UniProtKB/TrEMBL annotation:
Residues 1-19 form the signal peptide. Pfam families: I-set (PF07679). The keyword Disulfide bond applies. Residues 123-211 form the Ig-like domain. It comes from Oryzias sinensis. Keywords: Disulfide bond, Glycoprotein, Immunoglobulin domain, Signal. This is Ig-like domain-containing protein. The lineage of its organism: Eukaryota, Metazoa, Chordata, Craniata, Vertebrata. The keyword Disulfide bond applies. PANTHER family: CARCINOEMBRYONIC ANTIGEN-RELATED CELL ADHESION MOLECULE 20-LIKE-RELATED, CARCINOEMBRYONIC ANTIGEN-RELATED CELL ADHESION MOLECULE 8.
Length: 227
């Protein structure tokens, strides 16, 4: 009995979902100047759809019936797949980010709808690490390493010698992770720092060699101590 109820429930649910959204959950990610395809979950019907209509922020991008009516702003940027309702959008700009809605009227049967969010990102370029102090003495000096990059930055990660850096007594991060504070630097702070800047369409890693001098002028050279 339980099994039957469960099966009925699943059937109802899948029916509801089918009626609810003919686009995948999303969001879609696209890079500025690139192309995205909003693919529907539909198979080409035996008899062509009566009408397909794509909308974005109150603009009717295209309505396709026996003829196509295309918004002038999209004239050379879109291609509609009449068989599935899928839409290709080219030459993306940041302003293309937002929710797209689709309405399809099949030849017989109920109207179908879909909605999907597109996020547009500027690719990450020019990632570099900047440091504040020139000469660092262990346990005496402090420094800040700042990771800079152009583009839509979604996240930053700091690594030292290939390992993710954990915040602690001597190490902290700015709220957006753009700066790591080393206060003070220790002999163990010496090494190669990496900052990985990324967004859903791109990533870049910047390297920085931090040299920490020992406070005892007679101490052994770094290489012998730490390799
Ligand atoms: C590091 O940044 C913090 C916060 O901006 C600042 O207070 C501190 O003086 C900086 N330290 C160095 C060594 O530049
Ligand atoms: C900052 O970095 C930590 C650890 O690397 C990560 O858990 C956190 O999500 C990051 N925050 C931001 C705003 O990128």
């Amino acid at each position: 009995m339980e099994k039957i109820i469960w099966t009925l429930g699943m059937l109802l649910l899948s029916d509801l979902c089918a009626g609810q959204n003919i686009l995948p959950p999303g969001p879609l990610s696209g890079a500025v100047a690139d192309t995205v395809v909003f693919s529907t979950t539909l198979r080409p019907p035996a008899s062509p759809f009566l009408s397909i209509s794509w909308n974005f922020k109150g603009v009717n991008i295209i309505t396709s019936t026996s003829t196509n009516i295309i918004d002038p702003g999209y004239a050379n940027r879109i291609t509609l797949d009449r068989a599935t309702g899928s839409l290709e959008l080219r030459n993306l700009v940041l302003q293309d980010g937002g929710e797209y809605t689709l309405t399809i009227t099949p030849d017989g049967g109920l109207q179908m709808q879909g909605r999907i969010v597109l996020n547009v990102y500027t690719p990450i370029t020019g990632a570099t690490i900047r440091s504040t102090a020139a000469v660092l003495i262990e346990e005496k000096s402090s420094t800040n390493l700042t990771c800079e990059a152009s583009g839509s930055v979604s996240s930053r990660e700091w690594m030292k010698d290939g390992h993710l850096i954990q915040a602690g007594d001597m190490i902290s991060f700015s709220a957006d992770n753009s700066t790591v504070f080393l206060h003070p630097v220790l002999s163990s702070s010496h090494g190669t720092y990496q900052c990985r800047v990324s967004n859903p369409v791109s990533a870049q890693t910047a390297d920085f060699q931090l040299t920490v001098n020992c406070k005892n002028p007679l101490c052994a050279p770094r290489k012998q101590l730490y390799l």
